[in-house]
Amino acid sequence: MPVSRREQILAVAESVLEAEGPASLTMRRLATELGIRAPSLYKHVRSKDDIEAGLQERALRGIGEAVAAAGPELSRLTAAYRAWATAHPRLYELATRRPLHREALGPDVEESAAAPLVAAAGGDEHLARAMWATAHGLVDLELARRFPPGADIDRAWRVAFEALAPRTRPARERTGLSRDGSATVAPSPAPAGRGTPPG
Amino acid sequence: MPVSRREQILAVAESVLEAEGPASLTMRRLATELGIRAPSLYKHVRSKDDIEAGLQERALRGIGEAVAAAGPELSRLTAAYRAWATAHPRLYELATRRPLHREALGPDVEESAAAPLVAAAGGDEHLARAMWATAHGLVDLELARRFPPGADIDRAWRVAFEALAPRTRPARERTGLSRDGSATVAPSPAPAGRGTPPG
DNA sequence: GAAGCTGGGCTAACAGCGTTAGCCAGTCCA
DNA sequence: TGGACTGGCTAACGCTGTTAGCCCAGCTTC
User: Fold this and answer.
1) Which parts of the sequence are annotated with region: Disordered (chains A, B) (predicted)?
2) Closest Cα to residue A144, out of A89, A98, A80, A63?
3) Which domains does chain A have, with CATH numbers?
4) N or C: which end of chain B has fewer CB atoms below 10 A?
5) ipTM score of complex
């Protein structure tokens, strides 16, 4: 009873989505699961889209925590990212497909999820975005079964991130930060005082 | 009149989807656009899902042609890929979200779309998949507006593909093919006779 | 203790969705 | 002439998200 009814709805929505896919995520189904009728949900939630936005925020938080718990090393970071996504494939899908309503989000969610990656990129925000996109792309294509059946996906991850790791990149392209790939979180020299997170 | 009715439906579906988004892609809407009633569509098409599969194939073909027309140079390849995706964002989305029904596809579609990238990767299929995932990830996150508002996305592309380009990668990780990044389509030394395409 | 407010359930209903069944006009070919 | 096939049609089903409006329990305030 300490959890709000809204949070309860989101928890049920998450489990239904993950267990049976987005087609089963209906208002009537959620209501049944909670022992009430569909219209009653609207006392706690604005719309179905509102529920999906809540799931997105939950997913972002979950990914952020998983990645933060993995420590600063890049290979463990990417492994944690991939592990979370494959453990919650439908939630990951929903979270990345939806455009982000930043104002409706807890203000720290996006940044705290991005911070470890920026650190692993040696503070280079552009490299961090490249890494993020690569990780997302690998996960997304794997989840959508777009790689051919026998493809060695582990190896694609290794090849990608050995190429992207800061220590192996030529110095000329760096943004003037320390070249040793250490985990300093120095913000990139963006116009604004603090660096924009990769997303 | 030389085009089949099915092809007509797909063309209308493509333009409606691109112009107004997936919510407007309804059977009744397509029928209205063609001057008939919704149930008549089922004389030419099995289901709405069948239409979406058709759109996916069209998209794959379109991407393949655009990329092939860009020539062998990696930077032009990636530019063509990104340009196609941003010119047909909803179609790109639909094409990559759907799992691929390979048996229902023209057998050459997937391979021919992949071939130029494998070539640009110096024949290294794993690197080709890494590149593909990176390009897809960059496009996908951009289309979903997941990058923060001021992000320099062009630069993320440059950073990513300068790191991934075969000529700048250390030789130890290569699969023993020519190291000069030339456009030889030599298959990678996979167990099967011809190399598996990246997807 | 009575009155009133409010939170949170309910039923009924609406418009729109994909889809099926069954009917019928026209065309083509034997 | 007649049968088969093509490609329309109407009617309808069960599902969806959502709204309107009702009502009861419990709390607060006279």
Assistant:
1) 168-199
2) A89
3) 1-45 (1.10.10.60), 54-199 (1.10.357.10)
4) N
5) 0.85
